[in-house]
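Please supply some protein, with fold tokens.
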Amino acid sequence: MVFAGKSEVISMGRSYKILPALLIFVLASCIKIEDLPPEPMVDFREFTLSDSTDILGNPVRVGKLTFYFEDGDGDLGLPQPDNPGSEESNLFLKLYRKTGGVFELVGPSDPLYPSEYRIPQMVVPSQNRILKGTIDVSMIYFLYNPLDTLYYDFWVKDRSGNESNTDSTCVIVLGESGPCGNR
């Protein structure tokens, strides 16, 4: 009978050690795992203009596009290319310039026409492969008029070929410094 009492105390001691672990497990199982679609999503945050100089010391304007992104399957970004000339792009921009009071889509012959950009591959260290964050892209304006007024449409494409939604920047006047944005 004394033996049963000792066994009961040992059992009670174990239940006290197991109870916090069981409680943590139960609470963790109640946390909903986030599920996002495999197509990436972009959301414009800010565009900032500032004065700078290029590598030769010439004055230039620098624009910094900041946007938020999400990718449910974690395959946004491209690996480092094997050959320097074979780079792909995965961030795309369309330029709209104000001409005669109306915004018009411009083509590659326009001196402010944007390049395509490459977002590097991001590694997701956990089993949940969702990627979220902000990306900053710098654009250098060599030839511009301070009255140039424009905005960009932009979108991204992941390694599976899924394209994101298209979002737009704020209206940008190249002669004005500082940020403009949605948030």
